[in-house]
Amino acid sequence: MGLAVEDFEVGRTFETRGRTVGEGDISLYAGLVGDWTPIHMDDHFAQAQGWPARIAHGTLPMNMAIGMFSQMGVLDDGVIGALGVEWSFRGPVVLGDTIYATVTVLETRVTSNPARGVVKFGFAVRTQAGAAVQDGTLTVMMKTRNG
């Protein structure tokens, strides 16, 4: 079994690797969600709006950040399900930006079922230049050591 609720200490932080947002990421995401808005798909349109390049769909870097955290093996088979996401978009992520996430354990608790608990993670997403572009929380139900 992977990590359990008891393995997380409030205040512990994790640093993900970086990931560069590429052409394929934006195009694939547009196709998956059906959002072909010009700000994401048309360089000339994006530049006419004052951006240096197309901007990624807001939820693309959010999902990338959660995915980068998941790739660290922290969540793994200890997760039973997602309970909630609260997210804020602070700045643009443009084509070619590399994003990183700092993830902090905000809360842990065992539920009325001793085999299950809840862990709330805080995310701070920044670009290669250090610009804070997104932040939010992911709350998941996880197994306990009794699970």
Question: What does it look like?
Answer:
It is a single chain. Strand 4 (98-110) and strand 5 (116-127) form a beta hairpin. This protein has helices spanning 23-33, 38-41, 43-48, 59-70; strands at 13-15, 19-20, 79-89, 98-110, 116-127, 132-143. The chain has four helices and six strands; from the N terminus they run E-E-H-H-H-H-E-E-E-E. The protein is elongated. The chain has one domain: Thiol Ester Dehydrase, Chain A. The N and C termini lie close together (10 Å). By secondary structure, it is of the alpha+beta class. Strands 1, 2, 3, 4, 5 and 6 form a six-stranded antiparallel beta sheet that branches.
Tell me the total number of β-strands: 6
The amount of helix comes to: 10-25%
Looking at this structure, what is the CATH superfamily? Hotdog Thioesterase
The end-to-end span amounts to 10 Å
Q: What is the general shape? A: elongated
Q: Which features does this protein show?
A:
147 residues, alpha+beta, Thiol Ester Dehydrase, Chain A, 6-stranded antiparallel β-sheet, 4 helices, 6 strands
Topology:
Layout: E1 13-15, E2 19-20, H1 23-33, H2 38-41, H3 43-48, H4 59-70, E3 79-89, E4 98-110, E5 116-127, E6 132-143
Antiparallel strand pairs: 1-4, 2-4, 3-6, 4-5, 5-6
In short:
The protein is an alpha+beta fold.
